[in-house]
Amino acid sequence: MSADTDSRQPSSAPGSEGVGQPILSAEAVEVAFTAGFAPGGGRGTARAVDGVNLDVAAGEIVALVGESGCGKTTLARALLGLERPTGGRVVFEGSPLGYRSRDLRSYRRRVQLVQQDPTGSLNPRRTVYESVVEGLRVHEGTTADESERVAGALSRAGLRPPERFFARYPHELSGGQRQRVVIAGALILDPEVLVADEPVASLDASVRGEILRLLLELRAELGLSALVATHDLGLAWNIADRVAVMYLGRVVELGTVEEVLSAPAHPYTRALLSVLPDSEASEGPVVLSGEPPDPKQVPRGCRFHPRCPVLASGEAERAGVADLCTSADPAVLGGGAQRRVACHWSAADGSGRLRADGPAAP
């Protein structure tokens, strides 16, 4: 598996021995946008997130992977309380998330966002100190130990000595340093969960590994949990305990990183993995035809079937599930730690059987 660095330690990962009590959960979460607000425009209702169950346990890192437009960012925003679900609910430490200002204010101290583009998320007119302290002042006002807490957050984010960075502006920093400032701004409130949306996508390859290692160190030192949305399966392999593969608003495969990335069961996951430089796929790279369907017009049956190479090659027909693929929607996957896949072919006997322990449906 290609990666900038392989600093993950599977033997100590929570996901390797099953997930404990979830700290953050999506329970049948749906997010729909009506005409005029739907991504891409046009008429109708876009089901950006279409029934997702996903748990993040204390001290666990979950990677949410898939192509652009699959719903990763919308789900992340829903988990942050930035997007209110049109169905289902977000649960934090066993209690449903409330959407009153007071509830969200309290929640956002404990669940923090790490954005994709540090250059865009940092105000160019603010110093590093002003950017990092902003969240603290919003939630607590000016405190006597403000400078000490800013220094501590910068230090934990790997910017040492921290005082050296206080008066600097974003344009005076490297891309990796700017991302560390963004992370420090999240850490200053001592959150329990980080939600990171493509945290290294805008960085040079030479510094991606440093940021990934930092996230792992924060998990080890502070017990942080994290949901990392990414299209990069190499990143998922190096940082995650579990992987959720998302396609057109649904999680279609879920399991530990070793289960999903070493023995993918869903044709979509197989296709994503096959194009990695060191892929061991026997059939070579699988190029998916077309683009993901419009979320305002989700295909009947399995939502992946119009692009599915297994259906197109006749393998699904030989396994006796071709009609199901085009007419029956696979069950929405449950959450938890159990290995799951939403695919008629993978659940069938013969060449399409699920190549891992655990059921194909909830």
TrEMBL record:
InterPro entries: AAA+_ATPase, ABC_transp_ATP-bind, ABC_transporter-like_ATP-bd, ABC_transporter-like_CS, Oligopep_ABC_C, P-loop_NTPase
Pfam families linked: ABC_tran (PF00005), oligo_HPY (PF08352)
Signal peptide positions on this chain: none
Record has Heme as a keyword: no
GO molecular function, one term: ATP binding
Domain named ABC transporter: residues: 26-273
Entry annotated with the keyword Chaperone: no
Region of interest (Disordered), residue spans: 1-21
UniProt entry keywords in alphabetical sequence: ATP-binding, Nucleotide-binding, Transport
Protein family: Belongs to the ABC transporter superfamily.
Protein name in the entry: Peptide/nickel transport system ATP-binding protein
Species name: Nocardiopsis terrae
